[in-house]
Amino acid sequence: MTKKKTSLKNLLLIHELAFILLLSLVAIIGAIGIHLQEKSSQESNRISLIVQEVQQTRGDLYRQESFAEFRAQLLHYEPVDAAALRQAYFAAPEPQELIYEEIEAIWSRIDQADDWSAFEAKLAAIETARLAYGLSDD
């Protein structure tokens, strides 16, 4: 068996073609990554808008006339611990909650940018609510 000798020119051609193929592959993967990041960002924005809409709807719901009698009946009651109601937590416009869309938004920031700040802020907010309600940490 005789081996076919490859010229240096053919080797360089193969090398250049492989390099061009590699660059094309990297460009395609990069474009896909950018597209996916854009889609994820759009989804995160959509979820944020949904959360805002839900919060506005909830506020509008309790301001309706059908809740007027309920609100009036609440005035006849005294709080168990009036001092607790002076805490900053109870002055906030919205209670602390953890709805699915918020979890998705927090996870999206962690997944996309390794940004744990929203997660840590949510844990701190939940801890503030726990303390305001006088719940033990057991």
Any descriptors?
single chain; 0% strand; 138 residues; 70% helix; mainly alpha; 5 helices
What does this molecule look like?
With 138 residues, the chain is mainly α. It has a domain at 38-132. Helix content is 70%, strand content 0%. The chain has helices at residues 8-62, 68-74, 88-91, 100-113, 117-132. Helix 1 (8-62) packs antiparallel against helix 4 (100-113). The chain is elongated, with a radius of gyration of 29 Å.
Tell me the layout of helices and strands.
Layout: H1 8-62, H2 68-74, H3 88-91, H4 100-113, H5 117-132
Shape category: elongated
Overall number of strands: 0
Helix residue percentage = 55-70%
Determine the mean pLDDT.
Answer: 88
Order of helices and strands: HHHHH
Question: Brief overview, please?
Answer:
This protein has 138 residues and is mainly α. Helix content is 70%, strand content 0%.
